[in-house]
Amino acid sequence: TTDSRHGLPTFPNRTKELIPTRPNQLWVSDITYIPIWVDDITYIFCYLSLILDAYTEEIIGWSVGPTLEMTYPVEALRMALKRIEGMTNINLIHHSDRGCQYASSEYVRLLQEHDIRISMTEDSNPTDNGMAERVNGIIKNEFLEPLQTPKNLLEALPLVDHAVRTYNTLRPHLSLNMRTPAQVYEGNNNFIG
Length: 193
Fold this sequence. Notes:
The chain is of the alpha/beta class and 193 residues long. It is 32% helix and 20% strand. It contains six helices and five strands; from the N terminus they run βββαβααβααα. It has helices at residues 71-81, 100-103, 105-113, 130-144, 153-169, 181-185; strands at residues 26-37, 43-53, 59-65, 93-96, 117-120.
């Protein structure tokens, strides 16, 4: 899903040594595909854009669209930005691959308007954005494929919404000491990251 041969400005990887110690310190973003089975033998794809808080592991922004156009990652970003409305001096980094959606002028402008520092992978190695890649796999393999296969975009939207809500509020994470991402974000002061 990544086209990094676009000629748009890119940014250095600011996350190489960063281990987040609080919410809204590092957001990671990625796009993945979801198959839509038109009939028993024919499928097309829709595309899921996710933004994850790296400390809480909570999906804070998402959007599903029929194409890889920047419209859908921008929708996911606008959803995530609601989380920090009214906050000041956040010192937040947004990390993504070097795809044209994340390097687009609208996406970069939104980040800069909110004083969010931009970080991008430095090559096409998926491990440079491993947390976002892992969550993509969890959403697809644990929540979407076992449930049912959408036959169109309208069927995919509620399935993704349910998957995100389940992931955030019901699925305990070993990496979060068996808490859910929502529990960590809500301020469980006993959590040691």
